[in-house]
Structures are given as structure tokens and as C-alpha cells.
Amino acid sequence: MISFGIKDIIDILLIALLLFYVYRMMKNSGTLSLFYGVLVFFVLWVLASEIFDMRLTGSILDKFMSIGLIILVIIFQDQIKRFLIELGSRGRLSFFKRLFKHDKTNEEDHSRIMAVVYACMSMSKSKTGALIVFQRKVPLTDYEKTGDIIDADINVRLIENIFFKNSPLHDGAMIITDNRIKSVGCILPVSHDMDIPKNLGLRHRAALGMSQVTDAVCVIVSEETGGISVAKDGAISVKVSVPDLEHILSSSLSNG
Fold first, then answer.
1. Helices (H), the chain
2. For a surface tag, which of 30, 55, 211, 249 has the fewest beta carbons within 10 Å of its beta carbon?
3. What is the pTM of this model?
């Protein structure tokens, strides 16, 4: 007689949660078809090895499983790193951050956010293309190194001058880390998601790609239309108003 207890229910729930997270991660990175392929292969492996006890087929699939796991780790190393960082950043650390944060710090954070909002509003009116990336929990050190490190205070005039169309750095991305302009002229991973509207250019694809492999918040100002867009958590929002931009940045970059 097969026994089924609380531990079995917990076991099933844990596997279900793991599969759901993998599904969401691959959906955000535009590789959902790969998830379905891996899932089908896993089901075939379980059927051959555990249920029907097909020794030859099972042994062959076992070899593929051991190699396939290594390949998947290599392919999705950025997503795995993001998951582990998010996991380690939750819990008591968040409690202590909320406990010891000061109103003065919050006011300074908001003033820097507003500097970016005002700069985006100005560049939107003049149709100056821009791509600004805000680091959250996942470090962006590797992407910072692709540009020029300046480590400067956030300033409206500085942002506008960097993205001025005659500036040598205007084509790259600006990365803001710990409320400072850390690097400019940076190269970001481009998303190959087929669902992106064709009217969105390379800046939008780079911003979406960055939001798919990290938890960064990316703000784009279109050079063609002057429209403001935001890429976050593997999704992109276009035609974002200035008040909405302020709200998105304030809520996404909160220290709480």
C-alpha cells in the first residue's frame, strides 16, 4: 500500500514552486520554448527510467541529463546568479534595513531620482535619445566595465550633456549604482524576444535584455519620438508619463 503524508505534499509543493520559478525566469528571458523542451525531456526521462524501467533508454537519457544540467547552468548563469542574490537579500537583511534607515537618506534618494526624472523630461522634449540603468540587488560590475567609469554625483546637467547627440558617449548606457553615476557608454545585452514591437529600436531591446538577465530598472528616452519607456523584470512599458516614471523609480528603488 502506498503511503502519502505531509512530507510528500511538501515535496510536491517545493517542486511545483521550483518549476514555476524556472518557467517565469525563462519567460522573462524570452526562452520559454526551451523550458517546454526541457520539461518534455524530463518527463521522458522519468517515464523511461522510473516507470517503465527501460534500462537502455534510461541509461542513455541519464547521460544526457548529467551533461544537460551543466549546459543549462552555463546558459542561464546570469539568471541563476540573480535568483541566488535575490534569495540572499530577503528575510532579516530587509528587516534591519528598514529598522536603521533614516528619513534623511530617503529624502536624498528621492532628490536623486527626481534629478533623473527632470533630465528625462528635458531630453524627451528635445528628442534626445538616452538609456539609464539603475542597479538594484544584482551587481552590474561586468556591464560597468564595458564603458567609462566616472563615479559622479547625479546631476541633471551632467545627464543631459552625456546624452547630447554630439557627445562621444551618447550611444551607450548610463549605469547608476548606489545613487551615483558609476559608468557611461556601457554595452548591454540585447533581447531577442520576438514579441517586441518593431517600432522599438536598439535602446529598447538593450534595456529589455538587461531587465531579463538582471533585476535592474532601465529608463529609455526615444530619439525618434521623445517617448519615455521603462524596462523592468523582463517587461517593457512604453509611453510612460513623467508622474508615472517618478512613481516607478521611487517604488522600485526604495530601500525598504
1. 6-28, 32-46, 55-75, 77-89, 92-100, 103-125, 141-144, 156-162, 202-213, 242-252
2. 55
3. 0.64
